[in-house]
Amino acid sequence: MTEKLYSEKILSRSIDPATREMLARAEELGLETAWDRLEAMLPQCGFGELGVCCRNCNMGPCRISPFEEEGPKLGVCGATADIIVARNLIRMIAAGAAAHSDHGRDIAHTLLLTAEGKGGGYEIKDEAKLKALAAEYCIETEGRSKEEIALDLAHAVYAEFGKQEGPIQFTRRAPEKRVALWQKLGVDPRGIDREIVEIMHRTHIGVDNDPVHLILQGIRASISDGWGGSMVATELCDVLFGTPTPVRSQSNLGVLEEDQVNIVMHGHEPTLSEMIVAAAMDPEMVALAKKYGAEGINVVGMCCTGNEVLMRHGIPIAGNFLQQELAVITGAVEAIIVDVQCIMPALGALSGCFHTKFISTSPKAKFPGATHIEFHEEHASEIAKEIVRTAVENYRFRKPGQVHIPDEKTECMVGFSVEAIVAALGGTLDPLLDAIKSGAIKGLAGVV
Per-residue confidence at 102, pLDDT binned at 50, 70, 90? Predict the structure, then answer.
């Protein structure tokens, strides 16, 4: 299908050829996607876009007119537009920080179980990083097993969530001048959960009504997540699953295979995706796939958890957040396996239009139309095999006439962890810093 065959509507929705092809396929099949639902939502609420509506108490909902001459300028309680916007913004920060930091808490829980010998198949793969992190927490490592060290580290990290007075250990990785500025502004976080709870308290009716004061608390919660919960997740994942090193792979919807069992892993938590990758390589599972007529099992990632196995194992990544529905519409996916975050509830009804199994796994997240196979780290290996078996057995129900996989896929190189970058520079950042100081490199950009 060439670009000139696409309607202007399809062309305006994405620059990616695979996405355009699958949007056209969805239109041909009469299937709804996120783009269609957005179009149906237009025009979106102008008050909502500006953040000037408030429903934090039962006197509302209230909305502030952004125009000079018309509409109310104060909420029922007297809140101004600035107060309402600040409240709404930091409540969003609280939700995001809670989600990402809870991810870190779950990884700490997995490390704890692994250290206690209850990990269900997990192991400590980067002992050097384990010892480096232990040193930051002043945990003794000499003459101790990696399990003993990991147990102490897991307990120390756990404490970061519930502590009432700081500092959060990893915040001390920041330059001294930066920490001093945080302290001066009163945004040096005291504990990960405390800052999230305080946002919810401050934004309740009649509590904090100074916009700047509210935003500063949002900053404090953001630091507690970025330098706390999210950094915990990153570092402990490396300890458990290995620190990434550069590896080549492929991306986009073309990584799906017409003659194999396609399993899409979508969500956030590598505790699940790591085990799915291992289970899919099990000779018993591969033999079962061949019994049903497939050439093998093709595991691919989607969105965030896809990046985890991409950078550690070179597992191809089928797409980003907006492509999750399009993967199902290929008609070639036996199972899309999800845990938490970034998962559209629309997947349930859409999967019902194909043979695809939509499998939810987290105790925290259920979805309409999903088959729920609950994942627990203590029995990780056996549950992962059950999930993979469910996908493999579903291959026989695939309808070849519905299969439509775009050809587009792109070579990529990933796995640039801090450790890999420093090693490539000879063990220090000095060559990079010198190039920046001399002007040979004008700056660095991070795309997140």
Answer: very high
Q: 169 with 160: CB under 8 angstroms?
A: yes
CA distance 33 to 40: 11
Sign of torsion over alpha carbons 88, 363, 373, 282: positive
46 vs 384: CA distance, rounded Å: 45
State the pTM of this model.
0.93
The predicted pLDDT at position 4 comes to 54
Sheet bearing 261-266, strands edge to edge: 371-372, 357-360, 335-338, 261-266, 297-302, 317-319, 247-251, 410-414
User: Tell me, what's the pLDDT at 444?
Assistant: 86
266 has which bridge partners?
302, 338
Query: Which sign, positive or negative, has the C-alpha torsion 420, 422, 424, 427?
Result: negative
Decide: 327 and 319 in contact? Cβ < 8 Å: yes
CA–CA distance, 146 with 154 (Å, rounded to integer): 12
* Cα 410 from Cα 368, distance rounded (Å): 33
Contact 387, 271 (CB under 8 A): no
Peptide bond into 406 cis (omega under 30): no
Ranking 8-22, 67-81, 327-341, 363-377 by mean pLDDT, the lowest is 67-81
> Cβ contacts of residue 244 below 8 Å, gap of 6+?
238, 311, 312, 414, 415, 416, 417, 420
Contacts (Cβ under 8 Å, ≥6 apart) of 187: 216, 217, 219, 220, 223
CB atoms within 10 A of CB 147: 14
CB atoms within 10 A of CB 398: 22
* Tens digits of residue pLDDT in 343-396: 999 999 999 999 999 999 999 999 999 999 999 999 999 999 999 999 999 999
- DSSP secondary structure string, 333-360? -SEEEE-SSS--TTHHHHHTTSS-EEEE
The two three-digit tokens of residue 46, written as one number: 């102008």
